[in-house]
Amino acid sequence: MSKRTLSPCPSSPNCVSTQATDEGHTITPFRYKKPRAEAKEALKAAIATLPRTKLVEEDESYLHYEFTSLLLRFVDDVEFVFDDDTKTVHFRSASRTGYSDLGVNRQRMEQIRALVSGKL
Fold first, then answer.
1. What is the pTM of this model?
2. What is 15-116's CATH number?
3. Structure confidence at residue 5 as a pLDDT band (50, 70, 90)
């Protein structure tokens, strides 16, 4: 199975990615200790506690969610890739439309980081 890669962030400040190299877009990946399948289920359980989320694609090492904002119904795409070699969860969170997200994508990923802390 070929490893999935995350698309690069656009130049606009409405995206964060663990694979970005510039300060405006980069964010620290999650680490996991459990077997990948268990870590993935723990991540899914944490995300299930958040409002307006929909899992749109999944395979054994990949998750793609849509997060919809409450008021304006903007959709953000959030992708997770589990790298078993390094026990790392890489992710990308990006707005589909607009330019600035006022830090929403970064805040969301830090919220998820807090939710899964010690559970992966």
1. 0.94
2. 3.30.310.80
3. confident
